Amino acid sequence: MKKVLVLYYSRTGNTEKMANAVSEGAQISGSVEVELNFHVDTESLNAYDAILVGTPTYHHDMPVDFKNLFEEAAVQGINLKGKIGAVFGSYGWSGEAPKLILEIMKNKFEMQITEPPLLSKYTPDQKILDACRNLGKRVSESLMNRT
Ligand SMILES: Cc1cc2nc3c(=O)[nH]c(=O)nc-3n(C[C@H](O)[C@H](O)[C@H](O)COP(=O)(O)O)c2cc1C
């Protein structure tokens, strides 16, 4: 069975709400395995067919956990080439983090990414949560269509 990782960080729950909706959407088909988590070991990244990252923006930057994860993955030579990647997250005014993570996924790891990132200004409303479910669903569906 294909595996989807929804990996997120959230201090005040906004990105977490988005992550829950993305994960819900990804499970709709029932034919992919979805893991919702706020931490994974670098070595385990290999096990997923799609990696969806939820990141808020603090201090114009991504959380240090994600910096460490991607730096470590690069050092260890983890191969993510061709895996599906997408990024979403809550922000307040500038929202840099999702774009930074997408750039890394695309340029360093050569993942097949969905652009642009899905953003919510502070708390996600129903419309954004629907878009999150839809993102998860689309990723699952495209995995099912892969051989
Ligand atoms: C100390 C602090 C720094 C922040 N810095 C930024 C920032 O540089 N750019 C931005 O767009 N939002 C910034 N925000 C707003 C957060 O991104 C926003 O509150 C978001 O909803 C937090 O997501 P979370 O609930 O998933 O943690 C900051 C918030 C705090 C408390």
Give a description of the structure.
With 147 residues, the chain is an alpha/beta fold. Helices cover 39% and strands 22% of the residues. Strands 1, 2, 3, 4, 5 and 6 form a six-stranded parallel beta sheet that branches. Helix 1 runs parallel beside helix 4 (126-144). The radius of gyration is 14 Å and the shape is globular. The N and C termini lie close together (11 Å). It binds flavin mononucleotide (FMN).
Write the layout of secondary structure elements.
Layout (H helix, E strand, L loop, with lengths): L1 E7 L5 H14 L4 E6 L12 E5 L9 H12 L8 E8 L5 H12 L3 E2 L4 E4 L4 H19 L3
Parallel strand pairs: 1-2, 1-3, 3-4, 4-5, 4-6
The structure holds flavin mononucleotide.
The site of flavin mononucleotide has 18 residues, from helix 1 and strand 4.
